[in-house]
Specification:
Alpha-Beta Plaits, seven-stranded mixed sheet, four-stranded antiparallel sheet, 39% helix, disordered N terminus
Length: 335
């Protein structure tokens, strides 16, 4: 891990007046839940959905519920007051961790504003994207150089507070510029041997990762269930990665649908998402599945470029609240 750049603080040195940080959403292709137990997962960045944070100094602490502990936090969008309060609590912990890591001793009141287009509770990495954007904004404000590992560690600290035991795939994927394979804290860019479209559809209902994790863990209590789940998940992920690299979209799509069945049998899908999966397949999708923690949230469908519009239309007809199309473009470099 690279050490932070040393910056003297005091009257002779003033950090810049504002720092800006950016991150984006992600979708899990395959590997949900299994990745927490050390199995591999495949993730795709969604650059259309961004989180941008600005961090600046305030001459004096403003009044209001968002101001506490030397920090004022504002978040745009339609988040509930409860959710904003929860995020604010996490921000204070994240800021403290950032200062401890970088040696910042400045006690000036901070104003942090986050403009987040990543819908929360949908399995798209909203909390990780917000945390990464804030870390980068703080680094810019205090003129600290952070290694990739340091940024990951700080975001992962926030993720563990928000979700309990986080695998790290979200913390890594919200800063990635290409699809990646993640396992046990390490990530590698994925070669892509074909052009395809990934259609992401929001069911309109927030998922519950914590509830889903508990439900799956309860199912694992029966002898052999955990090993069977992890073995099957790993098999599907490995086959999907090979299919993506070799340009076999039909085989990749089949693995998506099989992984959905794995999660459906584990009772982690919902009726509306199952209906959207069926509609996507009927509309010409090569494969479809729930994505993220489950019990709500989003689903994804793999489509050839010429079929993406039809798949998208059918998903809206079936109840999708909103959709996004993510191109998967041929790339053979391994980064």
């Amino acid at each position: 891990m690279t050490s932070p750049t040393s910056v003297e603080e005091g009257p002779e040195h003033r950090a810049r007046s504002v720092g800006i940080g950016r991150a984006h959403a992600k979708a899990i292709l395959l590997g949900e839940h299994a990745v927490v137990y050390g199995a591999p997962a495949l993730a795709v960045p969604i650059p259309q959905l961004t989180a941008t944070a600005s961090a600046g100094r305030s001459a004096e602490a403003p009044d209001g519920a968002g101001s506490q502990g030397g920090l004022s936090f504002t978040m745009t969008g339609s988040l509930s007051r409860t959710m904003v309060t929860h995020v604010s609590d996490g921000l204070r912990r994240l800021t403290a961790a950032f200062k401890a890591h970088t040696g910042v001793t400045d006690e000036a009141h901070l104003d942090v504003i986050v403009d987040a287009a990543v819908p929360p509770g949908r399995g798209l990495g909203s909390s990780a994207a917000t945390s990464r954007a804030i870390v980068l904004a703080l680094a810019g404000l205090f003129e600290r150089e952070l290694s990739d590992d340091a940024v990951f560690d700080l975001v992962q600290t926030a993720e563990n507070v928000a979700h309990g035991r986080a695998s790290g795939v979200d913390a890594m994927a919200v800063g990635a510029d290409a699809p990646l394979r993640f396992q046990a804290g390490r990530a590698h860019p994925l070669p892509i041997g074909c052009d395809a479209m990934l259609v992401v559809a929001d069911s309109g209902t927030a998922g519950s990762t914590k509830e889903a994790v508990g439900l799956l863990r309860a199912g694992f209590e029966r002898a052999g269930r955990k090993d069977r789940f992890l073995d099957r998940a790993t098999e599907l992920v490995d086959t999907a990665a090979s299919a993506l690299a070799s340009g076999r979209p039909e085989l990749l799509g089949a693995q998506l649908t099989e992984y959905h069945e794995l999660l459906r049998v584990a009772r982690l899908s919902t009726g509306p998402i199952d209906a959207m999966v069926a509609a996507a397949l009927d509309a010409g999708s090569l494969g479809a599945k729930i994505t993220g923690g489950g019990l709500g949230g989003c689903m994804i469908a793999l489509a050839r470029p010429e079929h993406a519009r039809n798949v998208t239309v059918r998903l809206h007809e079936t109840g999708a609240a909103q959709t996004w199309v993510v191109p998967l473009r041929r790339r053979t470099d391994h980064g």
